[in-house]
Amino acid sequence: xxxxxPSIATQTMPEAEAKLRQLGYxxxxxxxxxxxxxxxxxxxxxSRARHLLQSWSGQYPGxxxxxxxxxxxxxxxxxxxxxHVPFVTRPFGPHDLMQTVQPLLPEDCRLPPRSSMPxxxxxxxxxxxxxxxxxxxxxxxxxx
Length: 144
What we know:
- The chain has four helices and five strands.
- The protein has one domain (7-137): 3-Layer(aba) Sandwich (Rossmann fold), CATH 3.40.50.
- By secondary structure, it is α/β, with parallel strands linked by helices.
């Protein structure tokens, strides 16, 4: 949201999955998941990340997923999946996130570079995701 992308934020994985079903996954260009939503214990996180990546790749083909979290959470997610999983490690700012996100977005969803893009860390809501078009209930930056 801070960087100008229409976004939907959810607080839980079931809410995120409900939004994907409700709006159709084709409406989304990218999913950003705070690994804290998947569990704190390394084994739980690894198991849930593996399940999510395996099931979502079949349910939502071609929909990139980026994870956010600590270095320890990063290792648990990497251990859960054999191929590269985009991961942004805390602490990070909007510029750091955009360096990971931009290459994953379809060309028609990318914003031109903004010279005024903030570089400081900004609190965000867990489960933020990027949409191709703003849905009617999309939040504006002033709402969160």
